[in-house]
Amino acid sequence: TNGKFRSLLVGVYRGDHFVYVGRVGTGYGAKKVETLLPKLKALETAKSPFTGVGAPKKEAEVTWLKPELVAEIEFAGWTADGIVRQAAFKGLREDKPAKEVKAERPAKPGQTDVPQPAAQVKAGPARRKNAKAEVMGVLISNPDKPLWPDASDGGPVTKEELARYYEAVGSWLIEHIKGRPCSVIRAPDGIGGEQFFQRHAMPGTSNLLELVKVFGDKKPYLQIDRVEGLAAVAQIGAVELHPWNCEPHQPEVPGRLVFDLDPGPDVPFSAVVSAAREMRDRLDALGLISFCKTTGGKGLHVVTPLANNKRKPLSWAEAKSFAHDVCQQMARDNPDLYLIKMTKSLRNGRIFLDYLRNDRMATAVAPLSPRARPGATVSMPLTWNQVKSDLDPKRFTIRTVPALLAKSPAWEAYCDGQRPLEQAIKRLAKARVAA
Ligand code: ATP
Ligand code: MN
C-alpha cells in the first residue's frame, strides 16, 4: 500500500482449493524487500486467489497476487483453525512449483519430520491450568476438559490427553485413514453429552484437514491425511474416526473388506473370538489374508486388504455381494450360531455377521480410533495369537494402548497382505457349485 510493504497473506493448496493460512508479518529486511517487491508487483491481480472456507475479505490496504510465488516461512505452530502462528518470512523458494506447496510441520530446533514410533503418551510441557496446550504444533483449547469420565483406571481422559494419544499412535493410525473420506463422532462436552456424527466439512474446519468431493454429493467430505490433522480433530472433540473402506484417493474402488461380528445379548465373548477365527479360515481358503481388531465395543472386526487391479477396478457392488455371500455361507453352515438378518429380535444368543460395512458410503471405526464408550476403549489391532478365548477388549484404552502398540507386531503384514478379490469371487462361486 502506498508503496509501503507490510506483510504477506499466505496460503497452501488443499485439494482444489487455495486456502488461507495466515499473515506473515516479520522477516522483511530492507534487502529482501528490495528484491521481493518487483516480483510481487508482476503478479498483481484484481481477484482474491483464496477459495474455500475462511478466506480473508478484501480490505482497502490489501493487494491480491496470483498464487505463483513460493515463500519459505518459519512459524511456531498452528492455531486451532490451522492458521500459522508467529510466522516469519525466510525468503522465496525458486525450486518448488506453487501447486506442490502443502502445509508443513512447524519448524522447531532439532525436530525431524521422521514419524516417531508409537510410544508412551508424552506429557505436555507444564502450563497454567486451562491455558491452551500445544500438540503436534496445534493449539488445544480447554485442554483440561474431561471427555471420558473414567479410563477404566479411575481417572478421566482430558481433551489434551486425547490429542496426545493421537500423537502417540498417529503414524500407525494415519495409514488406515489417509486418502479416504473420514467421518468423525464429536463429543465436545464429553461422551456423556451430546454427540454428532459429522461427515462434511463446515465453516471453521481446520486447514490441517483435507476436503474431498465424492460423486453425488455437493458438500465436501472430511478427510485426514496428516498426523497434525489428528490434533486438529481432537481440538473439536472428535472422539471416534470412521473412514470409508475405499482405496486411498479412489472413493469408487473398494480397498478393504470389513466383516463386523456383532454378538447379540447372552453371547459369550469367546464365541465372537471363534467366529473371527472361522471367518479368517474361510477367507484364507478363498486366497484372502485377514487381520483382526477389537471394536472397543461388543464385537470384533475382521479386515481383509484388497489388491487394486488398475486396469479393471473392482466395484462396490462386487465387493458387497462377495461379503454377503461369505457371511451367508457361514450362517447357513451354523444357523444356531450366526445370522445375516438385521432383525435385532432374532439375534438372541447368536452373532450377526454384518457384511454391510462393505459399501461405497459405509464406514467402519478405524483401527486405533478411541470409542465414545465407558472406559475410553480403543479399536485395537491384534495378532491372531491374541484372538483367543481369554481376549479382553476392555484392556485396550487410550491410556494403555500407546505402550502396548509400541511392542506389538499386529498388522505388520497388512500391506503385503493385499490380495485381488476377483480370484476369491471365482473360488467362492466354484465352491458353491460343488456344494
Ligand atoms: P460394536 O463391536 O460394539 O458393534 P462397532 O464399531 O462395530 O462396535 P457401531 O458403533 O454400532 O459398531 O457402528 C456401526 C457402524 O455404523 C460403524 O461402522 C460406524 O462407522 C457406523 N456409524 C456409527 N454411528 C453412525 C451414525 N450416527 N450414522 C451413520 N453411521 C454410523
Ligand atoms: Mn459391530
Topology:
Elements: E1 8-14, E2 17-24, H1 30-41, E3 70-74, E4 77-78, E5 84-85, E6 88-93, E7 133-135, E8 138-140, E9 146-148, E10 157-158, H2 159-173, E11 182-186, E12 196-198, E13 210-214, E14 217-223, H3 227-235, E15 238-243, E16 246-247, E17 250-254, E18 256-263, H4 269-285, E19 291-294, E20 300-305, H5 316-333, E21 338-339, E22 351-354, E23 381-382, H6 401-406, H7 421-434
Parallel strand pairs: 21-22
Antiparallel strand pairs: 1-2, 3-6, 4-5, 7-8, 9-10, 11-12, 11-15, 13-14, 16-17, 18-20, 18-22, 19-20, 19-23
Helix pairs in contact: 2-3
The structure holds adenosine-5'-triphosphate (ATP) and manganese (II) ion.
Residues 260, 262, 295, 299 line the site of manganese (II) ion.
Describe the protein in words.
With 435 residues, this protein is an alpha+beta fold. 21% of the residues lie in helices and 23% in strands. The chain is built from seven helices and 23 strands. The strands form nine sheets. A six-stranded mixed beta sheet has the order 21-22-18-20-19-23, covered by helices on one side. A three-stranded antiparallel beta sheet has the order 12-11-15, covered by helices on one side. The chain has a two-stranded antiparallel sheet with strand order 1-2. Helix 2 (159-173) runs antiparallel to helix 3. The longest helix is centred in the C-terminal third of the chain and has 18 residues, at 316-333. The radius of gyration is 24 Å and the shape is globular. It binds adenosine-5'-triphosphate and manganese (II) ion (MN). Manganese (II) ion binds at residues 260, 262, 295, 299.
